[in-house]
């Protein structure tokens, strides 16, 4: 369904996006309305926020899609809106379900390629309660002179850069000052993340639109479509809220572990890449605008470049509009840098983000329709693997069944170095356990001990109810007693390595069928058929005849995952599966792993991708110096770390 989205390359031109959107909306039979912005675009073109409405105005179930809150991110949201409208034509909605699409709510920012609006306001800081005093951000005031310097280069700029570098050093890097900068501020109209001095045009217009089209609804799912935070090419599903509310439980019910909830607050933290310290989000606005409805506000956030790189691009753009000339060569360079920080000119990124987002839309719409049918089992057509993220009922551990794997009290020494000092873990069928911890804490060694790629010196390992027999060694340690049993059990434990470990002299297909043919003794045609199905699942149908050297790292890792799945493992061990990849290839692999989680595979994952671990895991183990220092469900462990060591680790990595 979403493997080849109709729009393959995003346009970054306002007029083109608008024309595409209107054409798609008309073809879909939507009711169209336009809201004229008071200012024009850079070529004098008039600017509008457009609204497409599908379904009956009195429908009680409503889905809302908002694009372009941060203008320059608009091409992604607009492409999603147009593609979804076009793809599902002709639309047939049940009487009681409607769709409201708000196209480019900050059209000025989109047309001028700015994240902010015409008043330098970050719209996602503007939806505060303007009857009260805006929040204070004293720490931003200290940083402001370093962030907003009138010189592009020269002594003043050097001093500003040095001051910023010193602030970063004192706070543990950019991650230490980002929560202050991105919290938003209401005192410096020329500053970054400025929230404004009152409701801006886009704020008022969104509220007008919701007052006109959304008042009748009682169950509402809202998507606000963003780019620029999180791992490259990974569209994360978030819900941002100042406090708990009924929509969040609904969201968890619908999307399960795929949904991360970001609870905001002055000192709140999150590993999602967005600012938990900020207020005034669109998510708050939509809830306020529909006080009687159950509203699930969602944000899709498609990761691009590192936080500091994106922030530098935003800072340069701020300088350009305050002190520079947009049409100078330097101005054009700054604009191009900003655009590529939010909309990478990378078809793979664009397709992945588009396809995954349409999957989320499908999922939400199916939920709304199911409410009306009184259907309790949620079913939605599944999208193809590499981009399918929004599945039916989210999987979870099957309690009451025999654990898929149990490991007790593992010890491992390398000569004098004691690497594991009694580590235990168990995973129920369908459970995803992630192991996190500093480099050298023993995570990989532990994983390798589970399938005896390393021989533990002590401990017990039980896979699918069968315990690996161990015998004592002369030095008082232990080793497997029966290598044939080890081989048999190993065949039930899949392993995905950091460096893929594909055979370079075999094609992708040969790599996948090799073990099923020789270890499982499957017939060739059965193995080949299964391999093709798995290649389809990981989005590599067309690569079966290629050699690993002809594939990108991300494709090789997806092929390696298909090879692991070919053995129909009881448990899959993944050892830092994305850490050897270029940043732009991480997202595609994470999406495949997330799909495996959602399909109910049992997995033990070693990873440094904290946000991802939080999303997909049912349980997280924090390892420190070869011991489990802390373990628990991700929400608890990340929000309330009990040990100082975990607190420090999270502060360093988030
Ligand atoms: N084969 C080996 N021989 C000797 N020492 C080893 C061996 N394998 C691992 N070690 C040591 O064991 C310790 C734990 O390594 P391990 O790779 O398990 O850590 P980790 O937590 O996975 O780290 P990272 O996150 O950097 O991958 C390290 O000090 C490492 O140098």
UniProtKB/TrEMBL annotation:
Gene Ontology terms for molecular function: ATP binding; ATP hydrolysis activity
Residue intervals of the ABC transporter domain: 405-650
CDD domains hit by this protein: ABC_HisP_GlnQ (cd03262), M14-like (cd06233)
Bilayer topology annotation: Peripheral membrane protein
Localization annotation: Cell membrane
Statement: the UniProt record of this protein carries the keyword Transport: yes
The keyword ATP-binding is assigned to this record: yes
InterPro entries, per database record: AAA+_ATPase, ABC_transporter-like_ATP-bd, ABC_transporter-like_CS, DUF2817, MetN_ABC_transporter-like, P-loop_NTPase
Cross-referenced Pfam families: ABC_tran (PF00005), DUF2817 (PF10994)
Chain coiled-coil ranges: none
GO cellular component annotations of the record: plasma membrane
Keywords of the record: ATP-binding, Nucleotide-binding, Transport
Family to which this protein belongs: Belongs to the ABC transporter superfamily.
Name of the featured protein: Polar amino acid transport system ATP-binding protein
Species for this entry: Mycoplana dimorpha
């Amino acid at each position: 369904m979403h493997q080849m989205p109709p729009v393959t390359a995003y346009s970054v031109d306002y007029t083109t996006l608008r024309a595409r959107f209107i054409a798609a909306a008309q073809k879909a039979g939507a009711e169209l309305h336009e809201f004229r912005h008071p200012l024009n675009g850079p070529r004098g073109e008039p600017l509008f926020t457009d609204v497409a409405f599908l379904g009956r105005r009195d429908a009680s179930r409503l889905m809302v899609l908002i694009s372009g809150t941060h203008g320059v991110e608009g091409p992604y949201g607009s492409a999603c809106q147009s593609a979804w409208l076009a793809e599902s034509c002709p639309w047939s909605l049940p009487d009681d379900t409607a769709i409201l699409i708000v196209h480019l709510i900050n059209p000025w920012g989109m047309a001028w390629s700015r994240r902010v609006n015409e008043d330098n306001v970050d719209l996602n800081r503007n939806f505060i309660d303007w009857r009260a005093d805006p929040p204070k951000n004293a720490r931003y005031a200290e940083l402001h002179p370093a962030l907003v310097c009138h010189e592009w280069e020269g002594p003043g700029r050097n001093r500003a850069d040095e001051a910023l570098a010193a602030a970063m050093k004192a706070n543990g890097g950019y991650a230490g000052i980002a929560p202050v900068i991105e919290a938003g501020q209401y005192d410096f109209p020329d500053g970054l993340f400025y929230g404004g001095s009152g409701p801006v045009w886009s704020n008022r217009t969104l509220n007008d639109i919701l007052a006109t089209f959304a008042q009748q609804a009682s169950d509402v799912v809202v998507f606000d479509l963003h780019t620029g935070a999180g791992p490259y090419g990974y569209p994360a599903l978030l819900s941002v809220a100042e406090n708990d509310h009924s929509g969040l439980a609904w969201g968890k019910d619908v999307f399960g572990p795929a949904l991360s909830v970001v609870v905001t607050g002055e000192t709140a933290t999150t590993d999602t890449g967005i600012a938990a310290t900020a207020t005034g989000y669109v998510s708050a606005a939509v809830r306020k605008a529909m006080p009687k409805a159950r509203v699930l506000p969602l944000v899709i956030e498609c990761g691009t470049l590192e936080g500091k790189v994106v922030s530098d691009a935003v800072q340069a753009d701020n300088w350009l509009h305050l002190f520079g000339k947009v049409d100078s060569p330097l101005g054009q360079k700054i604009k191009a840098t900003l655009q590529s920080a939010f909309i990478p000119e990378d078809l793979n990124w664009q397709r992945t983000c588009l396809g995954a987002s349409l999957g989320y839309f499908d999922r939400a719409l199916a939920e709304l329709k199911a409410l009306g049918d009184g259907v309790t089992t949620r079913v939605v057509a599944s999208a193809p693997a590499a981009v399918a993220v929004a599945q039916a009922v989210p999987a979870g551990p099957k309690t009451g069944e025999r654990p898929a794997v149990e490991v007790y009290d593992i010890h491992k020494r390398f000569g004098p170095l004691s690497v594991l000092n009694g580590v235990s873990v168990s995973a129920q069928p369908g459970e995803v356990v992630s192991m996190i911890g500093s480099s050298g804490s023993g995570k990989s060694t532990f994983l390798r001990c589970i399938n005896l790629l390393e021989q533990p010196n002590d401990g017990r390992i039980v896979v699918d109810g069968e315990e690996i027999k161990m015998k004592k060694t002369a030095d008082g340690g232990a080793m497997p007693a029966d290598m044939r049993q080890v081989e048999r059990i190993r065949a039930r434990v899949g392993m995905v390595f950091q460096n893929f470990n594909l055979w370079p002299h075999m094609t992708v297909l040969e790599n996948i069928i090799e073990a099923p043919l020789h270890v499982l003794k499957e017939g060739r045609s059965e193995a080949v058929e299964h391999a093709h199905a798995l290649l389809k699942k990981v989005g590599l149908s067309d690569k079966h005849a290629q050699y690993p050297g002809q594939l990108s790292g991300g494709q090789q890792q997806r092929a390696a995952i298909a090879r692991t799945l070919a053995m129909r493992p009881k448990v899959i061990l993944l050892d830092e599966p994305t850490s050897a990849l270029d940043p732009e290839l991480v997202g595609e692999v994470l999406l495949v792993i997330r799909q495996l989680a959602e399909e109910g595979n049992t997995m033990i994952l070693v990873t440094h991708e904290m946000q991802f671990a939080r999303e997909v895991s049912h349980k997280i183990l924090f390892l420190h110096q070869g011991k489990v220092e802390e373990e628990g469900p991700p929400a608890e462990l990340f929000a309330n770390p009990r040990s100082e060591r975990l607190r420090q680790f999270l502060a360093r990595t988030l």
